[in-house]
Amino acid sequence: MTEFNKKVDLNEVSKFLFENDNYIILCHASPDGDTVGSAYALCRALHICEKKAKVLCADEIPARYDYMTKPVELQEFDHEKIIAVDVADTKLLGALNGLYGDKIDLSIDHHASNKHFAKINYVNANAAANCENIAEVIEALGVKTDKVMADNLYTGIVTDTGCFKYQNTTVNTHTVAAELMQRGADYYNINRVMFDTKSMARLRVESEAINGVEMYFDDKCALMTITAEMQNATTPDELEGITPIPRQIEGVIVGITLREKAQGKYKCSVRTHEPIDASEICALLGGGGHSRAAGCEILGTLDEAKEKMLNAVKSVMCK
Ligand SMILES: [Mn+2]
User: Fold this and answer.
1) 221-226 and 214-216: which strand pairing?
2) Ligand 1 centroid to residue 183 C-alpha, Å
3) Residue 175 C-alpha to ligand 1 middle, in angstroms?
4) What gap in Å lies between CA 127 and CA 134, rounded to an integer?
5) Right CATH number for 200-317 from 3.10.310.30, 3.30.540.10, 1.20.1250.20, 3.40.50.720?
6) How does pLDDT run across 10-35, given as a tens digit for each residue?
7) d(Cα 131, Cα 26) in Å, to the nearest integer?
8) Tell me: the pLDDT tens digits for 193-252?
9) How far is the CA of 161 from the centre of ligand 1 (A)?
């Protein structure tokens, strides 16, 4: 039986990728720009290395990412090696967890809370987006980044940094993004689609949710609720990127969004400013993430979910 949980460097990652073949690349469920960009850029690079590779995700990849996914052909094969990208914990694989969760060969990720669940694990939490790590992997493979890879990697970087606004953004983030622009990344249209385009239905949900924001702990914590009823006229993807809203309120250092996923099930997103660690709050509720952005799931009624979340916030704010 092969050992799991080994931490490796970039050399070992490229050695593994060269020595093996037939890769299934797994995205996390509720796919975002970073997991999709990581997976499809890597898939494309492996094809150029004459390897077979395909991407799988438990949930359908939203249509607005079509420009990233459509140009990459997904191949069929047996006897596969499994890679997870931007996945901190096998739970986040959603419905694919049962099938692949305990047999992942390689994990490439940037979450400090990563569980090192794969046989070999490359986790670089200094990367604002996992796509920064994938850019390094592609370079280590000796593959020249083409426009398809550049569009994928650029999208992951801008979505995970809120267009270079979040605190995770580094000099390296900008350097990698600049190189991707040189490789043809369509930065203007990518940013327009990812940040400057919202459906009318989405704006109506925002408006209703903002009207219902509740303030706690001397107005340092804002809690926004999106009920199932409010989401009726929208797809989940239309609501992507709604979670930073509560933290935008002046004076707020903890912004919470509770989104009803099913009866008695809430997806909670926590966005913080210094000195509050969002991942610390979510860890108390079985979740995780980054210092400024983290998430968890809470079961119960809306009132119970609020209470559990606010108790976790209080214990981190008041320690
Ligand atoms: Mn990410």
Assistant:
1) antiparallel
2) 22
3) 18
4) 10
5) 3.10.310.30
6) 999 999 999 999 999 999 999 999 99
7) 14
8) 999 999 999 999 999 999 999 999 999 999 999 999 999 999 888 898 899 999 999 999
9) 9
Where do the structural domains in the chain lie, given as residue ranges? 6-195, 200-317
User: Does the pLDDT of residue 1 top 60, yes or no?
Assistant: no
272: which strand partners? 254
241 CA distance to ligand 1 middle (Å): 13
Cis preceding linkage at 236, omega within 30: no
Q: Distance from the CA of 218 to the center of ligand 1, in angstroms?
A: 32
Whose structure tokens read 């709604």? 242
Per-residue tokens: 212: 């219902």
| Cα-to-centroid distance, 35 and ligand 1 (Å) | 6
Calculate how far, in angstroms, residue 62's C-alpha sits from the geometric centre of ligand 1.
17
Kindly give the distance from the C-alpha atom of residue 64 to the centroid of ligand 1, in angstroms, as a whole number: 18
CATH of region 6-195, choose from 1.20.120.340, 3.40.50.150, 3.90.1640.10, 3.30.70.2470: 3.90.1640.10
Query: Quick one: pLDDT at residue 10?
Result: 97
